[in-house]
Amino acid sequence: MGKTEWYLEYEIQRNRPGLLGDISSLLGMLSINIITINGVEDSKRGMLLLTRKDEQITRLKSILKTMDTINVTKIRKPKLMDRLAVRHGRYIHSDNDDKKTFHFVRSELGLLVDFMAELYKKDGHKLIGIRGMPRVGKTESIVAASVCANKRWLFVSSTLLKQTVRNQLIKDEYNDDNIYIIDGIVSTRRASEKHWELVREVMRLPATKVVEHPDIFVQQTEYKLDDFDYIIELRTEEGEEIRYDPIEKSEFNQNNGFSMFDF
Question: CA angle, 20 as apex, 16 and 23 as ends, to 5°?
Answer without folding.
Answer: 115
